[in-house]
Specification:
With 429 residues, the chain is an alpha/beta fold. It contains 14 helices and 16 strands. Strands 7, 8, 9, 10, 11, 12, 13, 14, 15 and 16 form a ten-stranded mixed β-sheet that branches. Strands 3-2-1-4-5-6 form a six-stranded parallel β-sheet, sandwiched between helices. Helix 1 packs across helix 12. It is elongated, with a radius of gyration of 24 Å. It starts with 17 loop residues before the first strand and ends in a 7-residue tail after the last strand. The chain binds NADP nicotinamide-adenine-dinucleotide phosphate. NADP nicotinamide-adenine-dinucleotide phosphate binds next to helix 1 and helix 12. The site of NADP nicotinamide-adenine-dinucleotide phosphate has 24 residues, from helix 1 and helix 12.
Amino acid sequence: MTVALDHPLPARVPSAPATIRIGLLGLGNVGSAVARLAQEAAEPLRMHGVQPLLGTALVRSATRERPAGSLVSHVTEDPDRFFADEPDVVVEALGGVTAAHALVTRALALGIPVVTANKSLIAAHGDELLALADRHHATLRYEASCIAGVPFLGTYERRPLATRVHRITAVLNGTSNAILSAIDNGSTYAEALEDAQRRGLAEPDPSSDVTGADAAQKLTILLRLFGQVRIDPATIPSTPLDVLYPSDLEASADWKARIKPIAQASWRHGAVHAFVAPAFLAADHPLANLPDVTNGIILDGIDGAHCFTGPGAGPAVTAATLLDDVVEVATERTVRHRAREAAPCATVVDHPLTGWFVRVEALTTSELADMLMSAGIWCDRLASHGNCTYALTLPATLEGLRSAAGALRAAGGRAVLAIPALDAAEAAC
Ligand SMILES: NC(=O)c1ccc[n+]([C@@H]2O[C@H](COP(=O)([O-])OP(=O)(O)OC[C@H]3O[C@@H](n4cnc5c(N)ncnc54)[C@H](OP(=O)(O)O)[C@@H]3O)[C@@H](O)[C@H]2O)c1
């Protein structure tokens, strides 16, 4: 059927894009990428109503030569000079907490919107800064602080019904995923870490990535948004990557499973269960096959699971998410984010009930099974691999596992390790 239109559709009249003067806090990896992208992506930004103008950048050392220095109008070490430039929006890419907190506070108190990539800042002071933004009719956007390559936070902030989530399971640290993927492909831990540093994925001091501290901060941000509860990231039970042996990944592969760097949190009536650890994932778990630096997240809600995966957050990806946030802030007349109410603070974070992947040296499979059973823990599978004996258990508490591990050591077992084991059945996407 053909429908004849009496009147042609009116052509869309583009309104002139608003010039937005961006003040850059930091001109390092991310700040420089923002400066480059603001120029390269001028056209799509203009189509969305924003013409970015790079104003002043604040750095520690203004005399240092830096390629992105020519892209901004001034580079300064002086915060007063930075604010005298009267930015329309501040992009915070400093890192750390103390200086970033002082400068973001100053911007918001002046009513200047801020977008940030700083998970440490948001995990430590997110509530306080959002309240400050609200009081001064400013905005604080932090999509880039938490798996910037998988932008989803803004969508959920605007959708109270979609946000009815009771559990998050995620790969939040792409560097850890790259390291475990390399070990899976035959590298040692030291080689995998060195390779991640050579590729610019891991910092010269990689401790925040490999201890789980980075993922714990991101999980804290997610828990605040979805669980309406505040926690101190240091209270999340965490296991570093370097406890693993290559044989652990080989033994998992024999069971058609993978070990991935997992952060999980669930909550109910103010009680929080969470962990950050390398975890054994059944082969058909939706996060089991995320390669290299890829991030992924499963949000279990009352209507089923939402799953997102996307690239790890390098400087270019982070810059794109920061600039998208700038566009959102600049066009915010149509999108208001609700102010957050004060959230209760959970002082105790327990480990959830999970299955466990257990390793021990110098004990047989039947000794391992007997000792786990005497602690009330049932084995689903047992195997030997090289010098090590492995068990996959049914769900048990962390306390139960700790007491079983003590008994294994007392019986002469060496190199005892227990990491969470997640079933694919509870994570359908
Ligand atoms: N790198 C990534 O791929 C990535 C991904 C996602 C999120 N992030 C987050 O983005 C933020 C920035 O990371 P980055 O890798 O860009 O860091 P970076 O390369 O170390 O850059 C930091 C910048 O901030 C400046 N700066 C630091 N402290 C300062 C202070 N007290 N006063 C004035 N300037 C100061 C530094 O000045 P100088 O240049 O003079 O030293 C530098 O320009 C962090 O929060 C990080 O977690 C990074």
